[in-house]
Amino acid sequence: MASSSPAHLMEEGRSSRDTTQGQPATSGYQAEHSEAGICSTILAFFSWILVILFFPFSLLWCVKIVTEYERVVILRLGRVVGGRAKGPGLFFILPCLDELKKVDLRTVVYDVPPQEILTKDSVTVTVDAVLYFRIFQPILSVTNVTNAPHSTWLLAQTTLRNVLGTKSLQELLSHREQISQEMQNILDEATDPWGVRVERIEVKDVRLPKQLQRAMAAEAEASREARAKVIAAEGEQNASRGLKEAANVMNRSKGAMQLRYLQTLTSVAGEKNHTIMFPLPLDLLNRLFDTLGAPRS
User: Fold this and answer.
1) What gap in Å lies between CA 63 and CA 83, rounded to an integer?
2) For the chain, is the Cβ count within 10 Å smaller at the N or the C terminus?
3) Cα(82)–Cα(135) distance, integer angstroms
4) What's the confidence (pLDDT) of residue 33?
């Protein structure tokens, strides 16, 4: 009973290469293939006899049900039956000949354990991530890898260390989306022969050493103080320019200073103060001293 499978296809590929080298290789493969087909047919015949003899109790072992989110790869004497996965629904197997491999097609979520990583600028950080993937080809996940979910999880840990080791701390903290996309592309390409598609991998947390946290906090505080001083200096500079322009305008008009003085008295009197400073112009004092003949100090 011949069935197409990855192993079968590989054997056919080797046979096609052997054909160019000589006829004996092809004839040997055909003999082996025909012998395997005869043996499987005989064993399947005896299996059907057992099913008929123990009917209907044999249905407990022959009838299987697969849910909507699962697929089953049936291996009959080590070969994939039908060349594709079965399900969902009800299907029939032969006892003692068929081996079932259930595959879950739902998206699987794994926590990547914390990894200590040395960044490009020689800073040691601890990073953990979340991995989302699903199996899109059940046959490849069964025939090409021993344990597809566990292998993908281990590969995600290695990829996380390798990718983040080429980034600086500033890039790690500010370009998480680009880093996640880069890791996803690398993982998706590596797990494609396993029938696994990586949907997302996200950097969940970046933990810095305590000393580095204190140093970064002091640096940020110093930077904020420097910016505050620069802003205050710029404000003083703009205010001095405004005062200079106002003084030039008042200097061109004789009554401008008096009006400004009266406005200042009005604003001070509105605040209910008991003491008001009353400045006297020097010109008025000079005239008063000239009139009285008093010496000027």
Assistant:
1) 20
2) C
3) 19
4) 47
Comparing 278 with 154, which gets the higher pLDDT?
Answer: 154
How many residues would you count in the chain?
297
Angle between helices 210-251 and 256-269 (to 10 degrees): 130
Angle at CA of residue 275, ends 272 and 281, nearest 5°: 120
CB within 8 Å of 202: residues ≥ 6 apart = 129, 130, 176, 180
Would the pTM count as exceeding 0.70?
Answer: no
207 near 125, Cβ under 8 Å? yes
The answer to whether the CB of 70 falls within 8 A of the CB of 91 is no
What residue spans of the chain are helical by DSSP H? 6-21, 23-53, 59-62, 138-143, 148-164, 169-174, 176-191, 210-251, 256-269, 282-292
CA–CA separation, 92 and 74 (whole Å): 10
> Could you report the per-residue pLDDT of 192-220, keeping only the tens digit for each?
999 999 999 988 888 887 777 677 777 77
- How far, in Å, are 104, 112, 124 from residue 136 at the CA level? 9, 22, 37
Q: Which residue has the tokens 């790869």?
A: 73
- How many Å apart are CA 135 and CA 191, to the nearest integer? 10
- With a cut of 50, say whether residue 130 has pLDDT above it: yes
